[in-house]
Amino acid sequence: MQQSEQINELAAALAAAQGEFGTVTRDKTAHIEGPKARYAYRYADLASVLDAGVPALSKHGLALVQPMEPHGDGLLLHCRLLHSSGQWLDSTMPVPLYARPQETGSALTYARRYMIQALLGLASEDDDGKAAQDAEPPKRRESVPAPVNGLSDAQRSEIIKAATDKGMAMARIGAILRERWGIEAAQWSSLKAVPAEHFAEVLRLVRADGAHEPGADDGVVGADGLEGEAPAEPMLTCKHEAARAHVTRAKPGKRIVCPDCTLEVTAADLPAVAHA
Question: 208 is in which domain, residue-wise?
Answer without folding.
Answer: 147-236
